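From the pipeline queue, job 12 of 40. The input is one protein chain; the requested action is below.

Action: predict structure.
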Amino acid sequence: MKRKINNFFWISVWVILILVTGNFSIWGQMFPEKSEAQEVVEDVFMDTSSYSTEIEVKGDNSYLVREDIKVFFSLKRHGIYRYIPQKGSIAQLEENGEIKEIPYYASFDDIEASKELHTTSENGNKVLRLGDPDENAQVVGEQEYRLQYKVTPVTSKGYNDAYYNIFPTGWQNEIPAGSTFKIHFPKAFDRENFQIYYGRYGERLNGMDIVNLTWDGNTVSGILKEVLPVGTGMTFYVPMEEGYFQNVATMSSRNIFLISISGVFLLILILLFWFFGRDRMMISSVQFQPPEGFDSAAVGYIIDGNVSDKDVMSLLLFWADKGYMKLQETEEQELSFIKISDLPEDAPKYEKTFFTGIFGKHAPAGKTVKMSNLKYRMANTFTKTKEQIEKNYEGKVYTKASKRARIVSVFLSCIPVFLCAFLLMKMTMTNILIFVLPIVYLIGLLIFNYTIDFWYAKAKKLRMLMGGISIAMSVTSIISLVLVYGIGMLKGKLLNFFPGLLISGILSCAGLVFTGFMKKRTEECVEWMGYLSGLREFIETAELERMEVIAQDSPHLFYHILPFAYVFGLTDILLDKMKDLALPSPDWYETQTPYTYFDYHMMHRMMHTDMDYAATTISTPKPSESSSGSGGSSGGGFGGGGGFSGGGFGGGGGGSW
């Protein structure tokens, strides 16, 4: 029954995490259900006198665009701006009449302008601002702006038709009659397939009705016979034969890049682990005697390479068991410390620092110190004791090289996941919430590292819980990213990042494991851990029958190992076993009760309530007296049977600023 409950718990954890991270994947997407024309407001500060566009269609289906725009500013303006869709989707009408959406991302190169140019990316558009931003450099009257840019559409499999917006539907003026365009094609094609449309976004009015077209070889020129009102534009579309364009940009190179960089990082992680992270086999044997030559604080540091408050506080239990002091519960149920004798001369420096901090130098035997008397005056001593413990075992627990390798490995493990999220946000209609998933992966990775580091300082249930949750967080974040993205790709709403994303995710999961086990113990520490892990195993797993035999021969042994159980995180487990044994009460703990035998509730209160309060009291510094506090629209086009106005690559809109 217990196993079924545990299985149900872990299944629930995974399901909940998948649902939560999956929702973040979905919330991170902004895929419009349909393309709709946006209302274009006329720019009353500007009149467009002519708009000329020259488009050079390259052999790889990229478009080198030159625009010459003449305007008249009725009031002072800095210049004009153009926004051009950088990502979105076009749509193609299949022979069976169905509309197929084709997502794309456009890279921009060779950007030049006749005026001062400022380039940004906003809301899925490339924004080009021409003019001087200085308030004293504004202009008025007739102005001419020449602009050049190259647009290279990237699609999942490559796009083989020519499809571009000649005049943008979002231009905030009417485009006057007499405006011209010229389109150069890289080689001959069937001119009967050349189609041109005009109108508002999504309309399919025949452009042949309002332009005069002339052909010169593979170049077509046109002159507008009528005005294009505000909010209308013009688009050309040519279905080409297979192979007309060569070396068309696809997602293959991006996928190869993702897979390659993830593979390289994993290889580096493997090499780091091989040379710096591999531990020598630890030989553990069950022990039930405290380790010789080590106090409990030292053991607490050795098992995890970190000095915690519990490690330092365990010295109180260690000294009491050794006969250097006693713990006393006063009538007010306050914990007091009674000095019995001085520490031995060969005691570690950190022990002497902490012991002297409590009782003072040259304190006589029998001196009693109440916990309330230590409030606010032990914080510096407590910190100094921690520092001295670390210094005493510096370089003896983990190798310095492996600790540096762990730091490097954390970054290397996270880069592929964050890179996937960055490319998704950059190249698809995905918002910044997509980064929640890599952050969840990172948090899971850090918790996993913490769990491995503190493996011997936590009880089995707690470390298994932390390890399971950390792995679930990291893995489910990647699963959600891959699954939700895969669904979007299958629906045709996303560029095909799936192969790179899948492989990067799998390799990142492998990196999680190598990173967690990257820290390597020194040869000396491996020897120590063989004994300490054996003692820990005895405390955690010894059967009652065996402990009863030990209790008959050495009843005080359990008090000898109590400080070590405290730093192992096994206090409750040891106390639970001790309550079933016929043990005398510890002679170093005086209470107001007359019991001479082991009192579980008394010891439990002392080990938790009293020790926790003592740790807080001793480690808290005095507050400062001076301190106080208070509370792109997606494009679309009907390919095959034609396109529509505003539906091709490029286009966008603009106005004055």
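Job complete. The radius of gyration is 37 Å.
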